[in-house]
Design goal:
This protein is α/β, with parallel strands linked by helices and 179 residues long. It has one domain: Dihydrofolate Reductase, subunit A, CATH 3.40.430.10. 20% of the residues lie in helices and 31% in strands. It starts with a strand and ends with a strand.
Amino acid sequence: MNKKNIVFIAKSLDGFIAGKNGELDWLHAIPNPENNDMGFIQLMDEIDAIVMGRTTFETVCAFGGEWPYSKPVFVLSNSLKAVPEYLNKKVSLMNGSPHEILNSLHEKGYLKLYIDGGSTIQNFLQEDLIDELRITTIPILLGGGFPLFGDLAKPMQFEHIASKIYLNQIVQNHYRRKR
């Protein structure tokens, strides 16, 4: 079985994934007139499902418009009891430890997962369950907010796989966990 957990996320130069009040408008600081997907479609082709935290789910829902994911989405939450009716066939709620979540999803045949959301990413990293990091850096300093990374029990080494530059300013780095 070829299992893989991938983080695909944007951050500011100073390492934040959202501003001090959760704002995300800075993600669009660089004009993108041709709507370059910056590797998102390729990621969707690689994965079986998406695992995201409740806050990320609620943020995506607040964007309005069409649901942006074609793959099954599993939302981690201890407080949500249901998802909006229009998402019943696309989104499922789960809770448990990162290991329990992965075991359950693997049993259902979901082996290649996109892990999304600040706390969710940090929890999976704390359990050493992330295989790849694809981090897109937007050239802006936020000066505070929600950091991408948190405390770890021990250092983790990753090897650099590739770098891509989008819109002549945005840098995406791809790393693989060294085990």
